[in-house]
Write a structure and sequence with these properties.
7 helices, 237 residues, alpha+beta, single chain, 9-stranded mixed sheet, two-stranded antiparallel sheet
Length: 237
């Protein structure tokens, strides 16, 4: 592609690596495009944030295509990942340490599968306090890291598919833990971390998210996405 191609507008499918923020991916790609074509300024943005501990499909728009970001953000999304039953964390994922343990002996595979039905359809969920949502001009995670309590209002989201793909109750070193692999198809604004936390409560236990991958946004699939390294390599060739 040429400089004009990027300025006119491109949709880039990037497979976001672990521990990168979505903002870092955007900055990296913008810098590489500018360097490759000696462009002083170009608009680059992403269509839907992925947490640093999540991997998978990130839609990047350049140039005039950035005007279409809201369209892609509104499309349904598919995720796969793993819940750990038997413990919780303040962030609902591995960003923070485990803060409480819960019993799991009463949890059967049948109960796990049956409990998914409670979350199909239009539901309300509370966003994690460790999130980038703004309240009173501050990000929620700023309140959380400062140890300040803040009122969070529930949000309406839609989950059309919630499938359990694997259950492993032999997790070492904590034999009390149960690893549950899942696949979820949901609307914009759905927090899978919150789903993990709520799923644990519904099982009369606790749960947190230990792995997450976004596999689809609308008709775009992570199988067609490229790594950051490959994208940069192709720019230079």
């Amino acid at each position: 592609m040429t400089a004009e191609d990027f300025l006119s507008g491109q949709i880039l499918l990037i497979n976001k690596p672990l521990n990168w923020t979505s903002f870092q991916v955007v900055n990296k790609l913008r810098w590489e495009i500018r360097q490759a074509f000696n462009i002083k300024k170009i608009k680059v943005g992403h269509a839907g944030t992925l947490d640093p501990l999540a991997t998978g499909l990130l839609i990047i728009c350049t140039g005039k295509k950035t005007k279409e970001i809201n369209t892609y953000q509104a499309q349904i999304k598919e995720y796969t990942g793993t819940f750990v039953l038997g413990s919780t964390t303040p962030s609902f994922d591995l960003e923070t340490e485990i803060n409480e343990h819960f019993p799991t002996k009463h949890i059967t595979e049948t109960l796990i599968h049956e409990t998914t039905k409670q979350f199909i359809g239009n539901i309300e969920q509370f966003p994690p306090v460790f999130s980038a949502i703004k309240k009173d001009g501050k990000r929620l995670y700023e309140f959380a890291r400062a140890g300040e309590d803040v009122e969070i209002k529930p949000r309406k989201v839609a989950i059309s598919e919630f499938e359990i793909t694997k259950i492993d109750s032999s997790v070492a070193p904590n034999k009390n833990a149960i690893n549950v692999d899942f696949r979820v198809v949901c609307s914009k604004g759905t927090y899978i971390r919150s789903l993990a936390n709520d799923f644990g409560k519904a099982l009369n236990s606790g749960a947190h998210l230990s792995a997450l991958k976004r596999t689809r946004i609308g008709d775009f699939n992570v199988e067609n996405a490229t790594s950051i390294e490959t994208f940069i390599s192709n720019l230079k060739n």
